[in-house]
Design goal:
Pfam families: Ribonuclease_P (PF00825). This protein is of the alpha+beta class and 112 residues long. The chain is built from three helices and four strands. The relative contact order is 0.26.
Length: 112
């Protein structure tokens, strides 16, 4: 589970990352990365899983999987970086290993 300081919580924060961050698209996810503005802040993650992905149970499962992947990747991401991951409808049928590979590839490319 991601600790509170490592989560984006406000809509304005999500909007800023999506609008100003660099974009990395994959088959099941789109990852937006806003580079560190200050190294003294914690790395923060946010997740967007719309109703197009599936029912509430499916959406929460996808969100938990993405949180687990981000927790694994947390040490490799620069402090202060903000990341938003948008799940696409295909994520509902994707294996955990596929989601992990997509997200870690994008984070290594944009946030390392």
């Amino acid at each position: 589970m991601l600790a509170r300081p490592n989560r984006l919580t406000r809509g304005a924060e999500y909007k800023a990352v999506v609008r100003r961050g660099s974009r990395c698209a994959s088959v099941n996810t789109v990852t937006y990365v806003l580079p560190a503005s200050a190294d003294d802040r914690a790395t923060r993650f946010g997740f967007i899983v719309s109703k197009q992905v599936g029912s509430a149970v499916v959406r929460n499962t996808i969100r938990r999987r993405l949180k687990a992947v981000c927790l694994e990747a947390l040490p490799s991401v620069r402090p202060g970086t903000e990341v938003v991951i948008r799940a696409l409808p295909g994520a509902a049928d994707a294996a955990f290993s596929d989601l992990r590979a997509e997200v870690t590839r994008c984070l290594a490319r944009r946030a390392a």
